Amino acid sequence: MDAETARGDFPFFDQPNAPVYLDSAATTHKPRCVIERLTRFYTYENANVQRGGYTLAENATRAFAQARAQLAAWLGIPDERIAFTMNATDALNQAAAMLAASRLRHGSNVVTTALEHHSSLLPWMEACRAAGAELRVLPLDVNGQPRLQDLETLSDANTAAAAVTAASNFTGWRTPLAQVLGFFRSRRIPVVVDAAQRIVHERLSFGELPCDFLCFSGHKLYGPMGIGVMAMAEEWAQSGVVRLGGGMVSEVGDVGYCRAKGIAGLEAGTPPVAKTLGLASAIEYLQTHDAPALWRHEEALARRLRDGLRSIGEIHLVNGGGNPLPIVSFVSDVMHPADMEQLLSIRGFALRCGRHCASIAHRRLRLSATLRASFGLYNTQAEVDALLDAIREIHRRREHPHG
Amino acid sequence: MDEGSLRQVESIAAYMAMTCDLDRFDYATELALQTQGLAKEECGEENRVLGCDSRLWFRLDALQGAIRLRVESDSLLVKGLAQMLADACAVFPAGILARRPLGLSKLLYARGWIPLARRRGLDELEERICQFARQHRETQSGTACTFPGDTPTREGTHCAGSPQCHIYSETEGSNQHETRDGGQDQR
Question: What pTM, to 2 d.p., does this model score?
Answer without folding.
Answer: 0.87
